[in-house]
Write a structure and sequence with these properties.
Elements (H helix, E strand, L loop, with lengths): L52 E2 L5 E2 L9 E2 L2 H7 L7 E5 L3 E7 L6 E8 L3 H14 L5 E5 L9 H14 L6 E5 L3 H11 L4 H32 L1
Helix pairs in contact: 4-5
């Protein structure tokens, strides 16, 4: 009866043994159905430490950080790192614009391509990598604006910081090329070509990028000639 005392080892109807759980409940440390194990997110979200980043080909690689990128301190190391048969890009980094030039696949000549208006780094990098991916670029030469005495000031430090940030987003090899007189040379060439002042302002950055890139290409050609001798 209701007042009957249960025998040792038995339990009343509706009660549970110690250590058991009701149907439909999860084990300690697990979440409800659809939430995954403790510490993970639901399907469709990204795990901690990964994010969607632009790839070297201009697309987006979900949940993967770029690996293998290298900043080469010498043009010799850069020449060895560039894949054969791929063009390389030259960049003239300004405070408001980025001039872009591209070489041919034989690494003989540089051609001005585009001038990008700068915004935040993430947007700049996405547009730049999309452009380089479309051109199948195999490496990047960044202009390094040293002072005339050869020292590096704030502008040179800014160029190095840009390369370090870009290195996290792509596996393209990168190097620097002294750009001290590239803008002067580009300006002189445009004046000799009888370009108007408005036209010079429009194209000066990408033409300067071509001068930067051509200097690196000429040096790489000289290295190849030395190897053949």
């Amino acid at each position: 009866g209701p007042d009957e005392i249960a025998r040792p080892g038995t339990r009343r109807p509706g009660t549970r043994r110690p250590g058991t759980r009701r149907p439909g409940t999860g084990r300690p440390g697990t979440g409800r159905p659809g939430t995954g194990r403790h510490g993970t997110r639901r399907h469709g979200t990204r795990r901690h430490g990964t994010e969607r980043r632009p790839s070297a080909r201009g697309g987006v690689v979900p949940g993967r950080k770029a690996v293998g990128a290298v900043i080469c301190e010498t043009i010799e190391d850069f020449a060895r790192a560039v894949p054969p048969g791929r063009p390389i890009a030259g960049l003239d980094l300004g405070t408001k614009t980025i001039g872009v030039a591209i070489s041919d696949r034989l690494l003989g000549s540089a051609t001005p391509v585009e001038t990008l208006k700068r915004a935040k780094f993430g947007a700049d990098a996405a547009r730049l990598l999309e452009l380089l991916g479309g051109r199948e670029s195999g490496g990047v030469v960044l202009g390094l604006p040293r002072n005339m005495d050869g020292t590096e000031g704030p502008r040179a430090q800014s160029a190095r910081a840009f390369a370090r940030n870009l290195e996290r987003l792509t596996d393209l090899p990168m190097t620097f090329w002294d750009e001290r007189l590239s803008t002067v040379a580009a300006e002189r060439a445009l004046i000799e070509a009888d370009a108007s002042r408005a036209r010079r302002a429009e194209v000066i950055d990408k033409v300067a990028a071509a001068y930067i890139l051509q200097g690196a290409l000429d040096r790489m050609a000289h290295l190849r000639a030395e190897e053949r001798e």
